[in-house]
């Protein structure tokens, strides 16, 4: 199973956490400034020295605002990640008219707090995973920084049902890279030849599964109309209930 935007909200939670942070800092017209925070983060992220390496590991600019980027494959990224957070929030606050050094540090801390508070399961997800775990082994396949993805799993309470976790930063490649799915395939035992894949991304989850002959479920099906592409023959569900 995929994690972000399949079992727990990711993009919407990041948006809500940014808005809550701006409000808590007293930034005027906070709701109108949310998109600019993502734009600034993306710009700083792409200008950073480890952009290509971290992109290849499936780590996004908005997740790096609260992720521990301590990675075995990119050891220098941990310290840089902390500076990245301050750079982003410093630029955001300067744009909003605040320049105090303490403000950007407070903003960085506030965002982490708000983002952690927003880790929760999507409707029906916890019940679905619990049901699956009764008769099957539940494996998680997720892109992102290892410590962050495992933190999300713990905060959501889903860790108790998951037998094995594959994180892109540990595997060394992000979905949909074939080597990510090779790592999963290689871990299957002889009596685990069938692997049902559940995910929100057609390109990152569904198509790689179908290419390997694995059945797949696409969540949420409401996004199919936005893709403008040929939808592969798989099950489409609105939620996990």
UniProtKB/TrEMBL annotation:
InterPro entries associated with the record: HAD-like_hydrolase, HAD-like_sf, HAD-SF_hydro_IA, HAD_sf, PGP-like_dom2
Keyword Hydrolase: yes
GO BP terms in the entry: N-acetylneuraminate biosynthetic process
Pfam families per record: Hydrolase (PF00702)
Domain of life: Bacteria
Protein name: HAD family hydrolase
Keywords, ordered alphabetically: Hydrolase, Magnesium
Organism: Streptomyces coryli
Co-factor(s): Mg(2+)
């Amino acid at each position: 199973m995929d994690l972000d935007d399949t079992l727990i909200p990711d993009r919407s939670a990041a948006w809500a956490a940014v808005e809550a942070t701006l409000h808590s800092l007293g930034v005027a017209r906070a709701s109108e400034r949310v998109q600019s925070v993502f734009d600034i983060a993306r710009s700083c992220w792409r200008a950073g020295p480890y952009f290509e390496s971290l992109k290849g590991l499936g780590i996004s600019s908005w997740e790096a605002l609260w992720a521990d980027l301590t990675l075995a494959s990119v050891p220098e990224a941990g310290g840089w990640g902390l500076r990245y957070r301050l750079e982003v929030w410093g630029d955001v606050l300067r744009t909003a008219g605040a320049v105090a050094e303490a403000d950007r540090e407070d903003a960085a801390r506030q965002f982490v707090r708000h983002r952690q508070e927003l880790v929760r399961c999507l409707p029906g997800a916890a019940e679905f995973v619990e049901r699956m775990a009764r008769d099957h082994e539940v494996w998680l396949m997720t892109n992102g920084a290892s410590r962050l993805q495992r933190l999300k799993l713990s905060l959501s309470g889903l860790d108790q049902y998951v037998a094995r976790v594959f994180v892109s930063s540990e595997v060394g490649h992000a979905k949909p890279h074939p080597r990510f799915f090779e790592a999963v395939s290689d871990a299957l035992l002889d009596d685990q030849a069938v692997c049902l894949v559940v995910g929100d991304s057609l390109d990152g989850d569904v198509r790689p599964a179908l290419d390997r002959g694995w059945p797949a479920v696409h969540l949420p099906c409401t996004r199919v109309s936005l893709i403008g592409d040929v939808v592969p023959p798989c099950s489409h569900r609105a939620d996990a209930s």
